Amino acid sequence: MTERLNGHRPTLEDVARRAGISKSTVSRVINGEPRVRAAVAERVRQAVDELGYVPNQAARSLVTRHNNAVAVVVTEPQNRLFVDPYFDCHLRGIRQELVHQGAQPVLLFIEQPDDYPRVANFLGGGHVDGALLFSLRTDDPLPAMVEHMGLPAIFGGRPAVGTGRRGHGYTYVDADNRGGARQAVRHLVALGRRRIGTITGPLNQASAIDRLDGYRDVLLDTPPQLIVEGDFTLRGGADAMAALLDRCPDLDAVFVASDLMASGALGVLRVRGRRVPEDVAVVGFDDLATIAEATEPPLTTVNQDIEGMGRLMARLLFKRTTGEPASPEDSPPLSSVVTPTRLVERQSA
Hints:
elongated; 6-stranded mixed beta sheet; 14 helices; alpha/beta; 6-stranded parallel beta sheet
């Protein structure tokens, strides 16, 4: 039964007094140190239960060097999170796993160069146990920054760092972007399409580069006019689709590197009087149900487990910060993970 001690909150000294042992021994038990006899540890646990003692988290963090907080750093404008369901899905997976681990996510945004020093000061200030970072661009300074400060970090997507490193040396979780793009384009070829264009993501991001490479793996010597760079937004997809149609009026298929851009592309095709899929077949990438099942017609797309990748990022960070598996069945080596993709056929192709 929980007791109140003269109306005040029980302290570490109260637990030590009730258990009949030293305060330092009580502290070792509460902080999970292994070098305490089982009988003594049981006396401490019993005293904690009887008194209703709750450890002071701030004081405890000084001993354990754990804050139970994780920085989630997004190199995107804040408003992208409200219009692109990809981020909502990714963050949902991260939050689910962090909550399971008893950790609190701290969301940080980098929208302009001036934000880097602010974020670096926070990350290096001992406020968080580690960081999850995604939406990085080519030559983004964040990977080197967290590496220099020794902060445990897991990257969402392969960091496209420099011209030669190709993400080596960093632990990341990513989808098989190149393989998924090959599936999409091979599907269009199998349908008999011959003028297949592509709308890429921003080509300073590894995922967009990999999806373009997958497109080129299938369509060798593609004319440059069939490739238009987008920006992973609805408007960007619409503008790129309009440019493709202006360049290639005889276009009969398009692989679009995200569902959100594909939704914008479908709108332009409709306005231009092109029937989908009769005149132009369309395949997206992501398989976000709120988009792919709601477009007209429903969107054939490449599925990637966005929420699952968020959970896996947080799980790998837990392993890095504690050296222990996040669950008994979770014991893969601490290395980068590339998750499979698969084509989901709907009516747009």
